[in-house]
Write a structure and sequence with these properties.
Elements lengths: L8 E5 L5 E6 L7 H12 L4 E6 L5 E5 H17 L7 E5 L5 H12 L2 E4 L6 H10 L4 E5 L4 H8 L8 E5 L43 E2 H7 L2
Parallel strand pairs: 5-6, 5-7, 7-8, 8-9
Antiparallel strand pairs: 1-2, 3-4
Helix pairs in contact: 1-2, 1-3, 2-3, 2-6, 4-5
Length: 219
């Protein structure tokens, strides 16, 4: 494993190998998406980046090559909708794997990620959207938070785009008496496991862009 961290920090150890000093030395041009994720993807593409699963039984193993590919596609998709350097983007994605695609993509674009909890209410959300001049919201379809956004969006003039991510259950899918998942907005669980299941389920809501489909179709 290459110690690329040593490009961006200085470490000093004593005779027992105990860390005694640590200094960050990142250049002004440092970008986590390019200088860490993509660097590893290009030099060690099969290295595991993340093992992800949810309570419904969906599983994905993402290599760094996968993370580069999906974050590039996400960046391309967001850029096509005008998201760029310095833009504030609110991200409400619970623990969906798309969170990491978005976080890395926004770093590559130079946009600012503003993470938020799905537990916000209307007054909380309106305050944050206006206070940070949010340009776009990337939100989960799981739960009621998309409706909360809809309830206040007319009072938030800076917001130009709403992106809805189908969270494929997000751990909230109910089961019948036989243990079968009662999905209401597409398939959930093991059927979505593996590469073909990534961002495979669309999300439809008036006034919102379908994130999963847009990212899958992006360059």
């Amino acid at each position: 494993m290459r110690n690329i961290n040593l490009r961006y920090c200085e470490e000093t150890y004593d005779e027992q190998g105990v860390l005694t000093d640590f200094k960050v030395k990142c250049p002004d041009t440092f970008n986590f998406g390019y200088d860490v994720v993509d660097d590893i993807a290009e030099n060690d593409p099969d290295r595991r980046a993340m093992m992800w699963c949810n309570p419904e039984g969906e599983e994905h193993l993402f290599t760094f090559a996968d993370m580069k590919r999906w974050s590039d596609k996400t960046a391309d998709y967001l850029a096509a909708h005008g998201v760029g350097k310095g833009d504030m983007v609110m991200v409400i994605l619970r623990r969906h794997y798309q969170f990491w695609f978005v976080a890395t993509a926004l770093a590559k674009l130079g946009a600012v990620m503003v993470p938020a909890t799905f537990m916000l209410k209307e007054h909380d959300l309106e305050y944050r959207l206006n206070g940070a001049s949010i340009k776009a919201v990337i939100c989960t379809s799981v739960g009621t938070i998309a409706q909360v956004v809809d309830n206040v969006i007319d009072q938030c003039p800076s917001v130009e785009h709403l992106f809805l991510v189908n969270g494929a259950g997000g751990g909230l899918t109910e089961q019948d008496a036989d243990g079968n998942w009662l999905a209401t907005d597409g398939p959930v669980g093991a059927a979505l496991s593996g590469p073909e299941g990534v961002c495979a389920v669309p999300a439809q809501r008036p006034g919102w862009h379908d994130f999963n489909t847009g990212v899958r179709n992006a360059d």
